[in-house]
Amino acid sequence: MADSIPTPLPGTRLNGSAWSPLREPLFRSLWLAAVISYTGRWMQNVGAGWLMTQLTMSPFKVSMVQAAMTLPVFLVTLPAGALADMVDRRRFLLVTQSWMVGAAALLGIFTLLGWVTPGVVLVFTFLLGLGAVVNDPAWQSIVPEVVCAENHAAAVALNSAGFNLARAVGPAIGGVVIAATSSGIAFLINAASLFGVIVFLLRWRRPDFQKAHSVRMLESMKAGFRYARSAPIVHCVLVRTGAFSVAASSLLALLPLIARTSCEYGATGYGLLLGSFGLGALLGAAFLPRMRDRFSVDGVVATAVVLFALMTFAAGRVHIFNWLLLILFLSGTAWIAILACLNVAAQTMSPPWLRARTLSMYLLILQGGMAIGSALWGALATKYGVPTTMLLSSLALIVGLATVRRYPLHSSELELAPSVVRD
């Protein structure tokens, strides 16, 4: 699954202490609920990927799990962003979170009853992805609303840390659970993990919410497009995101197949590989400020893309489990360095009242690119094999570096004003 969690730009100065947002009860409740939810989401990802390898060894069908999760981005991301800027985001998020609970719970029940086929897995993965895609623009837009102004940047950083903490432990826990029970239990745990977010949303009140001035959805979307066409920073973010997401998607899309053919640890091994990726991302995020002291933002990104390309190539060639753990760890470090720039640039590339709409465009390119790339690399792996496909993906990443010079990104202070007043 593609990252869509706001991440601090390398070198960004936080206005307060890194832990200050956790002193605010509202954000602390949100953060704890989110970390639990993220952990369940990664368990779900492990369960779906591994279950598909148990049902079929077709590279294309295995890669379609990743594609099905992100495919809904083409259908609903832009309307979801417009809606998130028009309606009460608390109520909106309650609907999307409940949808995901239902989809995860039904998939878990069907799996335990033995009613799953590759088609059933893809359908429910699509439904979960649909809920997540509709949820994301509103979810990313509420962070500035639950902390005071001086803690905005630190809250973004803590959100990133929570996501990567879950990415490090969730897959490992999921692998153990699946090995001891079944993927169905992992799906049910994911459904349960979402209730913390629902409880937070039920308790949260937004007294400053102002209803949009009779703006229709189409008009709201057009306003977002007009801004995107006129803002060079939006062009930079979207082009850079598209170049990376399509080329980089092969590793996570084909990892279940790599794990099944390269190690003897079963679902536990697959979970450990994903956990190693998450651990690399978590530790990489901690070292990004030091990297930014020595390099420009684009220097960090270019170095990380080269490293990710090398690790993608190596993942298709190496069949020793311990070496694969190292490869995934380094891949995670590079991944977070790239997405740190893209995510925060997307968070800050528009005024507050347009934030959800421009974020929806970013998510469309990021997750849509992952969906297209997953299907593309899966089809190529079916025809030419996994090693050759990973080589081609690595070359695509290197070619994508051409966008760095033409569409540069620059470090700047985070200015995440609350998005309560709308046009």
Name some characteristics of this structure.
423 residues, 76% helix, single chain, mainly alpha
Task: Outline the secondary-structure elements.
Blueprint (H helix, E strand, L loop, with lengths): L24 H31 L3 H12 L2 H14 L2 H24 L5 H24 L10 H29 L2 H11 L1 H9 L13 H14 L1 H17 L1 H13 L3 H29 L2 H19 L5 H27 L7 H30 L1 H14 L2 H5 L17
Can you describe this structure in just a few lines?
The chain has 423 residues and is mainly α. The chain contains 17 helices and no strands.
**CATH superfamily (homologous) name:** MFS general substrate transporter like domains
Q: Order of helices and strands, N to C?
A: HHHHHHHHHHHHHHHHH
Q: Compute the average pLDDT.
A: 83
Reading off the top of the CATH hierarchy, the class is best stated as Mainly Alpha
How many domains, in number, for the residues?
1
Give the structural class: mainly alpha
The description of the largest β-sheet is: none
Q: What fold name stands as the CATH topology? A: Growth Hormone, Chain: A
User: Mind telling me which CATH architecture this is?
Assistant: Up-down Bundle
Written description of the protein model:
This protein is mostly helical and 423 residues long. The protein has a single domain (20-205, 219-406), classed as MFS general substrate transporter like domains (Growth Hormone, Chain: A, Up-down Bundle). Helix content is 76%, strand content 0%. Helix 1 runs antiparallel to helix 2 (59-70). It is globular. The two termini are 32 Å apart. 60% of the residues are buried. The model is unreliable at 5-16 and 412-423 (pLDDT under 50).
